[in-house]
Amino acid sequence: MKRYQLRIDGQAVDPAAGVWFDTQNPFTGEAWAEIPRADAQDVDRAVQAAHRALNAGPWAEMSASQRGMLLHRLGDLITRDAAKLAATEVRDNGKLLAEMLGQLNYIPQWFYYYGGLADKIQGTTLPLDKKGYFAFTRNEPVGVVAAITPWNSPLMLASWKIAPALAAGCTIVVKPSEFTSASTLEFAALFDEAGFPPGVFNVVTGFGHEVGTPLVEHPLVRKISFTGSDVTGRVINEKAARHFKHTAMELGGKSANIVFADADVEQAVFGAISGIFAATGQTCIAGSRLLVQGSIYDSFVEKLLAVARTARMGDPMDPATQVGPVTTPPQLAKVLDYIEVARQEGATLLLGGQRGEGPACGNGWFVQPTIFGDVDNNMRIAQEEVFGPVLSIIRFTDEADAVRIANDVRFGLAAAVWTSDIGRALRMSEKLQAGTVWVNTYRAISYLAPFGGYKDSGLGRENGIDAIREYLQVKSVWINSGAVAGNPFVMR
Ligand code: NAI
Ligand code: MG
């Protein structure tokens, strides 16, 4: 079995305690690699290295343009290794090779975009109201960044943090999910190859309470950028608040995919399917609530079922597979529990509802694509994030009713509207409480479109120009160019 090492201060190193744990392949159920089980000692080493690199040495001295060049070089190396990194991700999280390869081929754009942005972040001169002074602002890196990432799209979600953080001049310690650490450890080697100085990029792996907690609490960490569950996000944000650390939180969702009677039905059916069954529903932007206008409800559901029934479960490495396993055994249990909850709440099971088994599923952790109809928005299945291939269909009457239902959850990550009426599309996009609204499409993302949550879906934005501000702090510099002190005991 392959044994991985931590990445600290530009070196591949063993964990201080000399302990590893197994990571499993969700399709075979078998352990395939050993991941370092780091602890607070390793965290301290990594954060100290990041702190040293931030404050002295080549990274601290480098111009923004030089940082941008390094990010570009890294992007090229990711392109070179995309297939290998994607295969590692599939082995570890069970998502389709087509999806992970698509992500790996797209990730370089984040490094090109933020690499290009690095030397375009300018301070301003201030049109001061006081005579005899000149003043300007500097944008400085916020400090050592801790990036804590989940298992569903390990490298893409890490890159959303790493690219702007490094462009801003920060240094970083990444803690990937204990279920999918391998790709981030392989990725780390590319930073040295690209020429990043030691300590700029570090990876510590292990469990939330053993590695995540000391990382969040380390006094030299100034910013925590987290993607994962709202439960863990709340714990981290409370700890960070005690020390006035900056945070960015990308949390869960219960996104509404809203189909009006005037929609292109075939496109809307595809959108509904990709919203919930792509990535086996393990995506924060899953369109887990499908709101269908009453006048087309029955015919739409029939067409949806006709397509959903053809979904092929199987080996995620096989190009013919459409639905892969869920990533972890606890996730399998959680999804099956929610299916039981929905049944007990009185939702009508229209498709699936069981663990996926059979020759095509190997020993994998599969859940059949599952659809519940006649769901009431107050049911738990409509309010809580399942993070699996489980769709809840809810009926609505008109625009106002759709808005009311869509917004009646504590999350607000994304929403979609399917309609041929441009006025309706604009009215709905204004009223929906979500960080992203799609019209006649679903699950589209880009490095240049701000992404983040309203309400309990999070704090801050990733992607786009302004995301670099998440990693900067502003300093005002005052220069006396001729003002004479008057009364020294009174403010100037
Ligand atoms: P999690 O939110 O607990 O884990 C995310 C990351 O946080 C992992 O790297 C984990 O090790 C770390 N972590 C856990 N506890 C920590 C702590 N106290 N301090 C610092 N770091 C800590 O998510 P988990 O357990 O992997 O999945 C549970 C549920 O979270 C899923 O069923 C799903 O509903 C949701 N989830 C949502 C994601 C999203 O993108 N919105 C992604 C992954 C999971
Ligand atoms: Mg795994």
In short:
By secondary structure, the protein is an alpha/beta fold. Helices cover 37% and strands 21% of the residues. It starts with a strand and ends in a 12-residue tail after the last strand.
Would you give an account of this structure?
With 492 residues, the protein is of the alpha/beta class. It folds into two domains: 2-251 and 457-476, Aldehyde Dehydrogenase, Chain A, domain 1 (3-Layer(aba) Sandwich); 256-439, Aldehyde Dehydrogenase, Chain A, domain 2. The longest helix is centred in the first third of the chain and has 30 residues, at 64-93. 37% of the residues lie in helices and 21% in strands. It contains 15 helices and 24 strands. The chain has a seven-stranded mixed beta sheet, sandwiched between helices. The structure holds 1,4-dihydronicotinamide adenine dinucleotide (NAI) and magnesium ion.
CATH architecture of the largest domain: 3-Layer(aba) Sandwich
Biggest sheet architecture: 7 strands, mixed
Number of contiguous helices: 15
Instruction: Give the number of DSSP strands.
Output: 24
Q: Note the beta-strand portion.
A: 15-25%
* Ligand identities: 1,4-dihydronicotinamide adenine dinucleotide, magnesium ion
**Tally of domains:** 2
Shape field:
globular
CATH class of the largest domain: Alpha Beta
Ends distance: 68 Å
| Largest sheet, spatial ordering of strands | 14-17-18-13-12-20-21
Q: Within the CATH hierarchy, at the fold level, what is the topology of the largest domain? A: Aldehyde Dehydrogenase, Chain A, domain 1
Radius of gyration: 24 Å
pLDDT averaged over residues: 97
Helical proportion, percent range: 25-40%
| Helix/sheet category | alpha/beta
State the fourth-level CATH superfamily of the largest domain: Aldehyde Dehydrogenase, Chain A, domain 1
Q: Residue ranges: pLDDT <50 for 5 or more in a row?
A: none
